[in-house]
Design goal:
single chain, 236 residues, alpha+beta, Membrane-bound Lytic Murein Transglycosylase D, Chain A, 4-stranded antiparallel sheet
């Protein structure tokens, strides 16, 4: 039985698509040859673009020739775990380490401290479980201590910052090979503090600032810029 084609809707990613289509494990969908074109276009299981076509392989195992009295056992491989990973920065290049945070997802709040790289990790779906398709947003609150405890003889207090989180809205960096996705680029620059609005018409100055901060020539190749942006923003 051939697989079926699914059109990616806004906010969808592969673990969510797998649950909606009753398929597990979700990583088997990504391994299907029918999805090679997505890989060639720099997509990932968690970074798909609205309108992408995902091939869902057949759910049933292929027919096997077995003796009539024999008993066969088929084991369905478990889903891999799904993680939320955030990195909080004091400035564009300096992480906010060892600070208190509160992460709220579906009304449940988890507290902790950022690590030495300013990172926060939260397991959204443990191995062997299905991703909760209703989890599309959250809230993060961070208590930021001042860089100087005293300024002009006055004790400085902490600053509380809060962000609304949206899951599944960050697109890939490329629409297809060697053609960048403007929305994906701008959202990453915005998240990193280089762009004050993703709706800005001109972003060349912000791109130049990013290049300078990360050791790239200001007028260098676009591919080098995109690779560095991917390394800085996307990699855990």
């Amino acid at each position: 039985m051939p697989g079926k084609k699914v059109v990616v809707k806004p906010g969808e990613h592969l673990p969510m698509i797998a649950v909606k289509n009753g398929f597990k494990p979700w990583q088997k969908i990504w391994e299907d040859p029918g999805n090679q074109g997505l890989k060639d276009s720099s997509r990932t299981p968690h970074l798909l673009l609205e309108g992408d076509i995902v091939t869902i392989p057949p759910v049933n195992p292929p027919a096997q020739n077995q003796a009539s009295q024999s008993q066969q056992v088929y084991v369905v491989a478990p889903n891999k775990e799904v993680w939320l990973r955030l990195k909080i920065m004091r400035s564009r290049t300096k992480p906010l380490d060892d600070v208190d945070y509160a992460l709220t997802l579906k009304g449940v709040t988890t507290t902790g401290k950022t690590d030495a790289q300013g990172k926060i990790e939260k397991e959204l779906a443990p191995a062997g479980t299905d991703f909760d398709t209703t989890l599309t947003s959250g809230k993060l609150t961070v208590s930021i201590p001042p860089e100087e405890k005293k300024k002009d003889g006055v004790v400085q207090g902490k600053t509380t910052c809060a962000w609304d989180l949206e899951f599944g809205v960050l697109g890939p960096l490329l629409l297809r090979k060697e053609r960048s996705n403007v929305s994906g680029v701008r959202k990453r620059l915005h998240n990193l503090g280089y762009l004050d609005s993703i709706n800005r018409i001109h972003d060349q100055g912000e791109k130049a600032s990013f290049r300078k901060d990360h050791g790239l020539p200001v007028s260098g190749p676009e591919a080098a810029f995109l690779n560095k942006l991917k390394d800085v923003h996307d990699k855990p």
